[in-house]
Amino acid sequence: MIGGNGTTRQFNSFEEAKRFFREQIKRLHPDRGGDKEEFLSLLERYQEFLERHRDQSRIKVVSKIPFTGNYFFTVLDLTVEEIALGCKKRIKVPGEEVLCPSCKGTGKRINGKSEICGFCKGTGFVEVKESFRTSYLTCPYCKGEGYVYKETCDQCKGKGKIRLHKEVEFQLPLGLKQGDIIYIPRFFANTVCDVYVEVNVIPHDYFLLDGHKLIYKCRIPFWEVILNQEISIPTLEGEERIPSNKFLSGEPIVIKGRGPFIDEYNRGDLVVQFELYIPENIPKKAKDLILKAVKIIQNS
Ligand SMILES: [Zn+2]
Ligand SMILES: [Zn+2]
């Protein structure tokens, strides 16, 4: 909606509004004899419009869905990697309502069971008698066919209209958490209503998102610690190898800046929590060998 000079105009899209402004600017340009004051005020309004629109068309994370107004709501399943690194997503949203192509808007199944039209008694026209003349009109009920279909159209279920779907592609905002709601303004995607998308994080096999941190729980077998072997740690960008003695203190290891992106410039940390793995049942033969090994160590 744009007000100016006492007029209000409604535009269907941002592009349409921009076109309108550009035409006005051309028309009112002082070089073409336009009024300078009027021209400057138009330029100012155009600038305001662009500013406002920039805000209206921005995808953002909101805390709740408004109580009023039309909107489309959906839950989007996202992997930990998608949330951590960001990606483009496509969602299906309701589009425009159009005449049902199967029944051409009648709501009845074409070529289904039919019945003689009761209104025109099957003639397809109705007679209108006035004092001195008689006129004939196409029957408004059967539209001149003389019969009416009785069965309901399968495609529109009798409504005569169907709603088209539209695919909207958008860049996933960074720094998302479980339950966040992404707001996609109708201006952004040229949709019939605003879109709200709730984030659902699909549980990962071994990563856990914890706010701006990525947690990896690592089980290290006791022999790898004793033998100081390198432990392989999965990260969002392939494997890292860490000497097992780094885990000896029991404190988690923090790999700085390798967690989820918080925004374009900042990244959270990857936190590796460590748990020592000792098998419950160690076969006797293995125990004896371990005892032998311990004796050698003690005597060395
Ligand atoms: Zn009829
Ligand atoms: Zn239909």
Structure keywords:
300 residues, HSP40/DNAj peptide-binding domain, four-stranded mixed β-sheet, 6 helices, binds zinc ion
Commentary on this structure:
It is a single chain. The protein is an alpha+beta fold. The chain folds into four domains: about 55 residues; about 70 residues, Sandwich (HSP40/DNAj peptide-binding domain), CATH 2.60.260.20; about 35 residues, no CATH class; about 90 residues, Urease metallochaperone UreE, N-terminal domain (HSP40/DNAj peptide-binding domain, Sandwich). The strands form seven sheets. Strands 3-11-12-4 form a four-stranded mixed sheet. The longest helix has 21 residues. About 15% of the residues are buried. One zinc ion binds next to loops.
Task: Characterize this entry briefly.
The chain is α+β, with helices and mostly antiparallel strands and 300 residues long. The protein contains 6 helices and 18 strands.
Topology of helices and strands:
Blueprint: E1 2-4, E2 7-9, H1 14-28, H2 36-56, E3 60-62, E4 71-78, H3 80-85, E5 88-99, E6 114-116, E7 125-129, E8 134-138, E9 147-149, E10 161-171, E11 181-184, H4 186-189, E12 194-201, E13 207-210, E14 213-221, H5 222-226, E15 230-235, E16 238-243, E17 253-255, E18 270-277, H6 284-299
Parallel strand pairs: 4-12, 14-18
Antiparallel strand pairs: 1-2, 3-11, 5-10, 6-9, 7-8, 11-12, 13-14, 15-16, 17-18
The protein binds zinc ion (2 copies).
The site of one zinc ion (ZN) has 8 residues, from loops.
